[in-house]
Amino acid sequence: MVSGVASRLASRSALRPAPSALRTAAAAASAPLARSFTASTPAASTAAARPKAMLEDENGYGFIRHIPRDPKPRTKSVTEIRGPYYSVMGKRYFEDVLETMGHYVDGLKFAGGSFSLFPEDKLKELIDLAHQHDVYVSTGGWIEHVLTQSAPLTAVDRYLETCKRLGFDVIELSTGFLSLPPSDWLRLVERVQSFNLTPKPEIGIQFGAGGDTAAADLQNMGAQSDPSKVVDLGRRFIDMGVERIMIESEGITENVASWRTDVIQKILRDLPMEKVMFEAADPAVVNWYVREFGVDVNLFVDHSQIVQLSGLRAGIWGMADTFGKITTFR
């Protein structure tokens, strides 16, 4: 099947606007190309209505040293959480997450194509609830499956039209399972922008990444890419106005014999930190990122890890190497 997909992709011309697709682009031509990483319909007077955390309340625990959280929308120290994937998430569950930890959540991501499994009204409930708490909503990397359809140009446009109608703000563009020329990837970015949606390219060093593949299986797929390739592509995305790039954890800190911290260091040496977001698959990885790069590093974590990450960023808890050691000078 994989070889069949590859041959179909190779036989197609590079992704370029088809005549049938131009009508959509023309309709959106007057709108701004890129959308901000903010909720599309922010709630009115959210800051005034938001319950104050006890750590911020002088009548609670506000007298204890901590690092205050910047208000939304944030361009640094951004936290995107995984929604339903490893566990089910409905409106009542998500309400609990947002009513208790909503101030610390910037974005919600539906991993893979998980959102396609929901009834539309239930999916809309989650998207609308996120927007009420000033949380942007992102697709997962399902574009990889969309690109394998028999008419990819039409499929991509219909996919974007549907995501737009449902209220998604951000479209993730992953190619961990596919070999896609960089020029086509850039055209995908333009296509998403033409729909007045925000593109979020996901890049990494390991082919076959994105499906929680075992380390041994990833190794059998061959050598990892040169980190310079990630940096070069990242620069091209930023030049196109991409606000944030997701860095795939598989092959770097997930499903590897040892962490490739050299890759992370190179990315942050050559790309602005506010332009990248790192996937952190487990608590030890979350702890390492904050220890090494401080509270401003942008992280994508599972929703079950939002409390741990928020406590670490506030400097009120941590592991042996971070407890009492996280601070700022502002």
UniProtKB/TrEMBL annotation:
UniProt record similarity statement: Belongs to the phosphosulfolactate synthase family.
UniProt protein name: Sulfonate biosynthesis enzyme
SUPFAM superfamilies, alphabetized: (2r)-phospho-3-sulfolactate synthase ComA (SSF102110)
InterPro entries tied to this protein: Aldolase_TIM, ComA_synth, ComA_synth_sf
